[in-house]
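Following up on my earlier thread - several people asked me to post the actual chain instead of describing it. Fair enough. Here it is, all 263 residues.
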Amino acid sequence: MEESAEIGIFGGTGIYDSGLLDNPQEIDIDTPYGKPSDKITIGMFNGRKIAFLPRHGKKHTIPPHMINFKANIWAFKELGITRIIAPSAVGSLKEEFEPGHFALPTQFLDFTKSREGSFSEQGKVIHISVADPFCPELQSSILQVTEKQDVKMHKDCTYVCIEGPRFSTKAESRFYKTTGADIIGMTLVPECQLAREAQMCYASISTITDYDVWAEKPVTAKEVIETLSKNVEKTKKILTELINKIPKTRECSCEKALAEAEF
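Reply from S.P.:
Thanks for posting it. Predicted structure:
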């Protein structure tokens, strides 16, 4: 492929256009798994080639359970991307995780039901380790940036990923809270594990938009969008500094994820 990039950004709810790139160009990519969520925008930022893909499509037309995660990851891999930054919207499972704060997941609990979570195919079985699902180098860079910007970032979080597109019942929300998890969302899985199979570094930056219904405060899509719109500029500011902060060479083990995973 003629086009290439170094860092990929999946735009989450509320971030459909990064607005960061110089000389942006849209490219259309086909993959063995179908089309990605939308056209991919490639451009330069401070001398680094960046690719941007809105996870739900530019007009937010793709619900979480229908995102073609395999196509999205494959398309980034085809572009030569080695690192993925993945902003997303989440609900809070703890009182101190307030709407408007950010969270950095280091673990996840998978409660999705119908998603294809592996590139394993007939004749090729992949057993990757996701004991630590996220890239420590990327996470370290994110923490350095958010500390400098005085952003309220909760670290070492556990993310419950549910199927969606509906929000939880009160009974489900109370159950998820008993697991010790901190935040809840609909898009982390299988995105992060597919990135690991593709031997790409991956880290999520989660914007907390609401208290999940355990708090007896029913969640509405309108509430989520309102909180996100207030936080979009903060997220873009984090991304702006983060791109500069990410090391140009990888010292993590993400690029060797398949070394002991394939039969």
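The first helix runs from residue 69 to 78. That should answer part of your original question.
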